[in-house]
Design brief:
Rossmann fold, Isoleucyl-tRNA Synthetase, Domain 1, OB fold (Dihydrolipoamide Acetyltransferase, E2P), six-stranded parallel sheet, 41% helix, globular, binds 5'-O-[(L-methionyl)-sulphamoyl]adenosine
Length: 687
């Protein structure tokens, strides 16, 4: 475990922690605060989890996004005095891992051991403060998964049958024929394999009504609302029983009642959240203390597993449900998901080596809006690092510490006067923490950092307004100038101290460096410190290294580009790699297709299939109905008016009770769709 609880931190994990309390004393028309130590009661427990990652490859920046968010939240809650349990880990079984190991000529265990070591090293480098790291190949997990399986069986929720359907190995998901979109996995768009084998089933359908009730009457259970609506739609379509065992490979946990079968990897993986707590042992203090989890933080494509299958499993074994599942968006690159085969994965280690952990964490938390997809580009990242970190925060700290050394002999003076600028800075500084709390409640890390930067920028502006270098010229003879100069240095130091508390959950090393420069490295920060002023009188400042060096963006962009080319070359991905195409066809084959320009005059959702959109398309004299499985990519209203290309002589098909005559053309990069449009007249031939 990379993160060790120090003696100082240990107080957060017990019932009581210590805090500075500041009693109000009247001074020069405002409140002065005096330090005294009092006890603050622990706020209770907080259990947060990340998904457990497939160790099928090294993790990329997209994976770190979720873990960085969970880490920031865990640190925030610890800072507030909660007894936090933050869990992550690796999901090591399944067909995908077995295949990868075979390709590499090693055992699955050897394969995952190597990758998991890399993942743990990555979290150590990124200073991820997890309390437990679960590997699903650990005996503590395996034994309990089998016990949970038996409990579900005893409940009458498991039966043996025959599975006939489709399996997506990269997603380790089962699909029925009607769930496929254009014959591919509806989640990732990749090809699926027809599967037919004896299998055990979980009576998921039995829990349909309770699940609907959960979504409809407990809106907080799944957030954001868009995800909740998707899940309501999914459950309303009707739940089928879930296949929960496989016989076509053996890298998994054996079904306890039938050793020819291994337990479906998702059933195995989801239980991690409670097996680590000792469930279902008789003696399970951790479970009693931490379950139900406060938040399962997961990516949007695995919300279904966490809010349909997982709750149904828990209902089956009579275990309370997690309080909340939050589905975050993806980090996209070049308009699509990162993928090794496209050579567009962003390696977090490269960025950390060049810019440091805190700069990368800041960027991830500041740039993206929780719940939505975001596009990653080096340019946006470098500009953020330069403007927000080097210019705003770095400059504020280095200017202020230098001035305190120069004008006050390195000792933070007491405030001795107050004008409007001083008052304004104080008010702004003290107003940030409640705003941050409100944003953190909603996992709005970007808004929390935005508010903190209002203070950072205000403090920089304050220096320009107060012009301490002018005050310093006359301070020796003019007591008023001296009082103003002292107050200015004092207030800047206080603002920096407050910022050091506010940013601690997001960039704790930077926070520590700032506290070291303020001479308070030995004072453990607590959240309440962000609500008070006047704590630093007499502390001795130390000038440290620049917190964030200024980056030459052009130069960095070039070098990152070079590194990417090198990485692609090492991975055997040629820069001008020919496209992988379907077999060549004759012109006569192509000529059989009648392509026409059509204008969409109406678009609506298919009444019986959530994935389908029903279009009325005008092609010159004729208007006809065309149905496409694209509702997850387009809103019906945004399609109306588009002039599109229709495969007009395609044999009509019946799609869930409605006829589709023809097909629209879409451009597909494996993850994202674009519709092919034209400015030609409707009815025109395309050739
Ligand atoms: N093993 C399952 C989770 C089981 S949890 C009981 C799994 N693993 S995964 O490695 O494929 O994905 C783990 C998480 O990483 C998912 O939440 C997924 O959304 C997230 N991400 C993977 N690529 C991502 C981006 N490009 N951007 C943001 N998150 C991404 O699913």
């Amino acid at each position: 475990m990379p993160w060790k609880i120090t003696d100082d931190e240990a107080c957060f994990r017990g019932a009581v922690c210590w805090n500075y309390y500041l009693g109000p004393v009247s001074f020069a028309g405002r409140k002065e605060k005096k330090m005294a130590e009092v006890k603050t009661e622990s706020k209770g427990k907080y259990y947060i989890t990340t998904p457990i990652y497939y160790p099928s490859d090294n993790l990329h920046i997209g994976h770190t996004y979720c873990t960085v968010m969970a880490d920031a939240m865990a640190r925030f809650k610890r800072l507030q005095g909660y007894d936090v349990r933050f869990q992550t880990g690796t999901d090591e079984h399944g067909q995908k891992i077995q295949k990868k190991a075979e390709e590499k000529g090693v055992t699955p265990q050897e394969f995952v051991d190597e990758i998991v070591a890399g993942i743990k090293q990555l979290w150590k480098t990124m200073e991820i403060s997890y309390d437990d790291f679960i590997r699903t190949t650990e005996p503590r997990h395996i034994k309990r998964v089998q016990e949970i399986f038996m409990k579900m069986n005893e409940k009458g929720d498991i039966y043996k049958g025959k599975y006939e359907g489709w399996y997506c190995t990269p997603c380790e998901s089962y699909w029925t024929e009607k769930q496929l979109v254009d014959g591919c996995c509806p989640d990732c768009g990749r090809p699926v394999q027809k599967t037919s084998e004896d299998a055990y089933f979980f009576r998921l359908s039995k829990y349909q009504d309770r699940l609907l009730d959960l979504f409809e009457n407990h809106p907080d259970f799944l957030q954001p609302d868009t995800r909740r609506n998707e899940m309501i739609g999914f459950v309303k379509q009707g739940l089928e029983d879930l296949c929960i065992s496989r016989t076509s490979f053996d890298w998994g946990i054996q079904v306890p009642i039938d050793h020819d079968h291994v337990i479906y990897v998702w059933l195995d993986a989801l239980t991690n959240y409670i097996t680590t707590l000792g469930y279902p042992d008789e003696d399970r203090p951790e479970y009693d203390k931490y379950w139900p989890a406060d938040v399962h933080l997961v990516g949007k494509e695995i919300v279904r597993f966490h809010t349909v299958i997982w709750p149904a499993m828990l209902m089956s074994i009579d275990v309370p449900l997690p309080k909340q599942v939050l589905g975050h968006g993806w980090l996209l690159i070049d308009g699509g998901k990162m993928s090794k085969s496209k050579g567009n994965v962003v390696d977090p280690v490269v960025l950390i080596d060049r810019y440091g952990v805190d700069a990368l964490k800041y960027f991830l938390l500041r740039e993206y809006t929780f719940g939505q997809d975001g596009v990653f580009t080096n340019e946006v990242m470098l500009n953020r690092m330069n403007f927000d970190l080097a210019n705003d925060l770095g400059n504020l700290v280095s200017r202020s510490i230098t001035m305190i050394q120069k004008y006050c002999g390195g000792k933070i003076p007491a405030a001795a006067s107050q004008d409007d600028f001083d008052k304004d800075l104080r008010e702004i500084a003290l107003a940030v923490a409640p705003k941050v709390e409100a944003h953190m409640e909603k996992f709005q890390f970007n808004l929390a950092l935005d508010d903190i930067w209002v203070l950072v920028r205000r403090a920089n502006k304050y220096i320009d307004e107060k012009m301490p270098w002018v005050l310093a010229k006359t301070a020796a003879e003019d007591p008023d100038a001296k009082a103003q100069l002292d107050t200015c240095m004092h207030d800047l130091a206080e603002a920096i101290r407050i910022i050091s508390v506010l940013i601690l959950p997001f960039m704790h090393s930077t926070s520590e460096k700032m506290r070291d420069q303020l001479g308070i490295a030995d004072k453990k920060a607590v959240w309440e410190d962000a609500f008070v002023f006047d704590q630093l009188d007499g502390e001795e400042v130390h000038r440290g290294e620049a917190l964030f060096p200024r980056l030459d963006v052009e130069k960095e962009l070039k070098e990152l580009d070079e590194l990417k080319k090198q990485q692609m070359a090492e991975a055997g991905i040629a820069e001008n790699k020919p496209l992988e195409l379907k077999p060549e066809i004759e012109f006569d084959d192509f000529d059989k297709i009648d392509l026409r320009v059509g204008k969409i005059i109406k678009a609506e959702k298919h009444p019986k299939a959530d994935k389908l959109l029903v279009f009325q398309v005008k092609m010159g004299t004729e208007t006809r109905q065309v149905i496409s499985g694209v509702s997850q990519y387009f809103k019906p209203e945004e399609m109306v008016g588009k002039k599109v290309i229709v495969v007009a002589n395609l044999k009509p098909r019946n799609l869930r009770g409605m006829e589709s005559k023809g097909m629209l053309l879409f451009a597909d990069n494996g993850e994202k769709l674009g519709i092919v449009t034209t400015d030609a007249e409707d009815g025109n031939s395309v050739n």
